């Protein structure tokens, strides 16, 4: 977890703070994809943080070890370090200030260092707030745009050949991988006129009724074709507080909505280990939904009622799910971390924290399939 002034690592079985590293500036946390390391977006660079959870294969079983969590000292330079996407055994780092894309094998983090010869470098035409997704085919999905406008998503080959493109994604922001088809990867992206889905080598537009519809924060699952997304419809709102979420069927190219009756924000959404859709609402409840039907399976009272702060960088409740199947929810106003059993819909533990948490990343020693995207831009 980050706080104003540093990073702390917490044992989620005991609540013990394992390490506390002072670091100035606003820090963002991104899972590296290997279940052990976290990439810290810190202005002009990505820093590698080792959780200390070590899993070593031994025949038909694994051995588990632990060491003290710490920053490794390894960094990847990036002008305006932005999004990190781990997918298909690769991890892509995007630099908003230059459009540079750095891609490495996810396994490259094993020694806690990223060397120059482990990095493949790509670039967009112009700097912009974008993202890149390594596909299992070896191709690369990436956004194109400028600091003022972005509406293009492309898939290019390793040699740079343009394989697929859509320009019908104004304000492109937010992406998530879903269950693949027999033809390969499926990736959903948010636009300001309804989402677009890359599937079977082509882009497919999702119909929406509203002239403006933005799903800039999306959450996928390798277990499901459904992507969970926020659902905003007011282009003039400085801070829209939606109560509906979107469920995007990426294989059928349709989206349904569920009205939860209480608002949420971009850090409120997550996916369960079996694909469940999780939404923490202003009333303090963690809503656990069947992603196929939208039915609410559980409503778990977790935190005190809250509201989204005016500045997205400010502390407010955050939800993340580990590969262990548990959901972890921060409650900054009470300096607490809560642990929820998603399958049972029960609150298991609550721990006091020494600092007010801001960002949260969960690593269990096991890597996860797919990726999702939550960002303060909306």
From TrEMBL:
<dbReference type="InterPro" id="IPR015943">
    <property type="entry name" value="WD40/YVTN_repeat-like_dom_sf"/>
</dbReference>
<dbReference type="InterPro" id="IPR011044">
    <property type="entry name" value="Quino_amine_DH_bsu"/>
</dbReference>
<protein>
    <submittedName>
        <fullName>Uncharacterized protein</fullName>
    </submittedName>
</protein>
């Amino acid at each position: 977890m980050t706080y104003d002034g540093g990073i702390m690592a917490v044992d989620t079985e005991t609540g013990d703070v394992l390490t506390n590293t002072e670091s100035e500036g606003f820090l963002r946390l991104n899972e590296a994809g290997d279940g052990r390391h976290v990439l810290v977006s810190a202005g002009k660079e990505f820093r590698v943080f080792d959780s200390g959870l070590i899993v070593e294969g031994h025949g038909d079983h694994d051995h588990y070890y632990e060491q003290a969590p710490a920053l490794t000292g390894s960094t990847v330079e990036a002008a305006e370090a932005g999004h990190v996407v781990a997918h298909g055994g690769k991890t892509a780092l995007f630099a908003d200030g230059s459009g540079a894309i750095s891609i490495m094998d996810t396994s490259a983090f094993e020694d806690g260092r990223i060397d120059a010869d482990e990095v493949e470098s790509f670039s967009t035409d112009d700097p912009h707030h974008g993202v890149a997704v390594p596909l299992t085919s070896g191709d690369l999905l990436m956004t194109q745009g400028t600091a003022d406008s972005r509406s293009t998503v492309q898939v290019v080959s390793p040699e740079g050949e343009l394989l697929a493109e859509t320009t019908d994604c104004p304000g492109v922001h937010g992406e998530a991988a879903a269950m693949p088809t027999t033809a390969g990867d499926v990736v959903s992206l948010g636009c300001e006129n309804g989402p677009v889905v890359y599937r079977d080598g082509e882009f497919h537009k999702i119909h929406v009724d509203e002239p403006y519809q933005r799903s800039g924060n999306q959450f996928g699952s390798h277990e499901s074709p459904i992507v969970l997304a926020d659902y905003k419809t007011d282009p003039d709102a400085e801070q829209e507080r939606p109560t509906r979420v979107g469920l995007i069927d990426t294989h059928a190219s349709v989206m349904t909505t569920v009205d939860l009756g209480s608002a949420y924000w971009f850090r409120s959404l997550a996916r369960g280990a079996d694909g469940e859709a999780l939404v923490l609402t202003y009333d303090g409840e963690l809503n656990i939904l069947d992603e196929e039907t939208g039915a609410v399976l559980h409503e778990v009272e977790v935190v005190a009622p809250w509201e989204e702060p005016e500045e997205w960088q400010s502390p407010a409740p955050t939800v993340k799910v580990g590969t262990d199947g548990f959901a972890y929810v921060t409650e900054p106003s009470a300096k607490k971390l809560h642990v929820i059993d998603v399958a049972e819909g029960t609150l298991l533990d609550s721990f006091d924290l020494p600092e007010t948490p801001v960002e949260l990343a969960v690593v269990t020693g096991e890597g996860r399939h797919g990726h999702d995207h939550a960002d303060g831009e909306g």
